[in-house]
Automatic annotation (TrEMBL):
<dbReference type="InterPro" id="IPR001478">
    <property type="entry name" value="PDZ"/>
</dbReference>
<dbReference type="Pfam" id="PF25083">
    <property type="entry name" value="GIPC1_GH1"/>
</dbReference>
<dbReference type="InterPro" id="IPR055349">
    <property type="entry name" value="GH2_GIPC"/>
</dbReference>
<comment type="similarity">
    <text>Belongs to the GIPC family.</text>
</comment>
<feature type="domain" description="PDZ">
    <location>
        <begin position="126"/>
        <end position="206"/>
    </location>
</feature>
<dbReference type="InterPro" id="IPR036034">
    <property type="entry name" value="PDZ_sf"/>
</dbReference>
<dbReference type="Pfam" id="PF25082">
    <property type="entry name" value="GIPC1_GH2"/>
</dbReference>
<dbReference type="InterPro" id="IPR017379">
    <property type="entry name" value="GIPC1/2/3"/>
</dbReference>
<feature type="compositionally biased region" description="Basic residues">
    <location>
        <begin position="1"/>
        <end position="11"/>
    </location>
</feature>
<feature type="compositionally biased region" description="Gly residues">
    <location>
        <begin position="219"/>
        <end position="232"/>
    </location>
</feature>
<dbReference type="InterPro" id="IPR056814">
    <property type="entry name" value="GIPC1-3_GH1"/>
</dbReference>
<dbReference type="Pfam" id="PF00595">
    <property type="entry name" value="PDZ"/>
</dbReference>
<feature type="region of interest" description="Disordered">
    <location>
        <begin position="215"/>
        <end position="234"/>
    </location>
</feature>
<feature type="region of interest" description="Disordered">
    <location>
        <begin position="1"/>
        <end position="41"/>
    </location>
</feature>
<protein>
    <recommendedName>
        <fullName>PDZ domain-containing protein</fullName>
    </recommendedName>
</protein>
Length: 328
C-alpha cells in the first residue's frame, strides 16, 4: 500500500492504553517494542533472567542489588524496594554515572556489567514562560512509566533563556493540566501547539541532587561522552521488553548503532522527542524490508499507537539504507 494511502489512525485509539503498552524511551520508551513478543504475558519469576545488577540512588546511597525484572516498570519497583521508596519517586535512571547525563539514560537495554543510578524526585518549581517563537527549543523523552522529562535544551532558544528550567526536569503540569501518564510525543505536541506570543505556566520536578553534584545546568547531548554513548562495557546486554520475557542479546553491531543514532536524530527533528529504544525498534522493523511502502506497513503493525508523517517514514527508510551501505 503506497505511503500516501495508508489508513489514518483512529484518534481515540491513539490516545488509549498508551502507557501500559509501552516501555522506556527514553530513555526512552517504545510502544510494542518487541516485534515478536507483543501480546505475551510477563513470564513467571522462575523463568526470568537470573542476572544481578548493582544500583545506587544518584544523589548518594548504599549499594543495592536487584534481579528478577523483565521490563522497566518492574526494574523501578525493584529499585524502590531496595531503598524503601515508592516507584513513583523514581524519575529516570542513568548507566555508569550518577550525573544527569542524557547520553547515559537507561533505555531498553542494559549492559550486563552496567551499574544503575536512580534519579529520584527533588525540588518542585513552577515557571511562567513567554512563547516568543513557535519552537521552544525543548526535546522531550520519558521513562516508560508515566514521567516525561526534558532531554535537551537548544542553545539560544526560548527555554534556554529561562535558566530555572534544566535538562532532567520532569514536566508535571502545563497550564494547569496534569500530564503525568502521557507519552513524550503527546507532551511535545502539547508544547508545540501552545499559541505564540502568549505566556504559559509549566510545573516541573527536578531530580534530587547531592551538594557536590550542583553545577551549571547542561543543555544535554551537546558533546561526546566516554565510550561514545555505547551501553555497557561487556559484549552482551539485557533487552527489556514491554511484552514477553527480557532477553540477553549481543551488543549492537556498528550498522545498528549508526542507524539507531540517525533515526533518533530524525525523531527529534520531526517530533521533538528522543527515544533510542523506539529508534532501535524501527531499525529492527526495517532491517529486511524491500521498499518504503513495505516498511511503512510494518511500522503500522508494530507501532500502531504512533502516527508518523509520510516524510518521516521515507527519511527513516533512507537512513536504514544508508547504514546498510555504510554511507555514514
Amino acid at each position: 500500500m503506497p505511503l500516501g494511502l495508508r489508513k489514518k489512525k483512529n484518534k481515540s485509539r491513539e490516545s488509549s492504553n498508551l502507557v501500559e503498552n509501552e516501555e522506556v524511551g527514553g530513555h526512552a520508551g517504545v510502544g510494542k517494542s518487541a516485534v515478536n513478543g507483543g501480546g505475551l504475558p510477563p513470564p513467571p519469576a522462575s523463568l526470568r533472567p537470573k542476572l544481578v545488577f548493582h544500583t545506587q540512588l544518584a544523589h548518594g546511597s548504599p549499594t543495592g542489588r536487584i534481579e528478577g525484572f523483565t521490563n522497566v516498570k518492574e526494574l523501578y519497583s525493584k529499585i524502590a524496594e531496595a531503598f524503601n521508596l515508592s516507584p513513583d519517586e523514581i524519575l529516570f535512571c542513568t548507566l555508569n554515572t550518577h550525573k544527569i547525563d542524557m547520553e547515559k539514560l537507561l533505555g531498553g537495554q542494559i549492559g550486563l556489567e552496567d551499574f544503575i543510578f536512580a534519579h529520584i524526585k527533588g525540588l518542585k518549581k513552577e515557571v511562567e514562560v513567554y512563547k516568543a517563537e513557535e519552537a521552544l527549543g525543548l526535546t522531550i523523552t520519558d521513562n516508560g512509566a508515566g514521567f516525561a522529562f526534558i532531554k535537551r535544551i537548544k542553545e539560544g532558544s526560548v527555554v534556554d533563556g529561562v535558566k530555572v528550567i534544566c535538562v532532567g526536569d520532569h514536566i508535571e503540569c502545563i497550564n494547569g493540566k496534569n500530564i503525568v501518564g502521557m507519552r513524550h510525543y503527546e507532551v511535545a505536541r502539547m508544547l508545540k501547539e501552545l499559541p505564540k506570543d502568549q505566556s504559559f505556566t509549566i510545573k516541573l520536578v527536578e531530580p534530587m541532587k547531592a551538594f557536590e553534584m550542583l553545577e551549571p545546568r547542561s543543555r544535554g547531548g551537546g558533546g561526546k561522552t566516554s565510550g561514545d554513548g555505547k551501553i555497557g562495557t561487556g559484549r552482551e546486554t539485557l533487552r527489556l521488553r514491554s511484552k514477553g520475557p527480557a532477553t540477553v542479546e549481543e551488543m549492537p553491531t556498528e550498522f545498528e548503532e549508526k542507524a539507531v543514532k540517525k533515526v533518533d536524530d530524525l525523531l527529534e527533528s520531526y517530533m521533538g522527542i528522543r527515544d533510542t529504544e523506539l529508534a532501535a525498534t524501527m531499525v529492527e522493523v526495517g532491517r529486511d524490508k524491500k521498499n518504503p511502502d513495505e516498511f511503512a506497513m510494518a511500522l503500522d503493525e508494530a507501532l500502531g499507537d504512533f502516527a508518523f508523517p509520510d516524510e518521516f517514514v521515507f527519511d527513516v527508510w533512507g537512513a536504514i539504507g544508508d547504514a546498510k551501505q555504510g554511507r555514514f
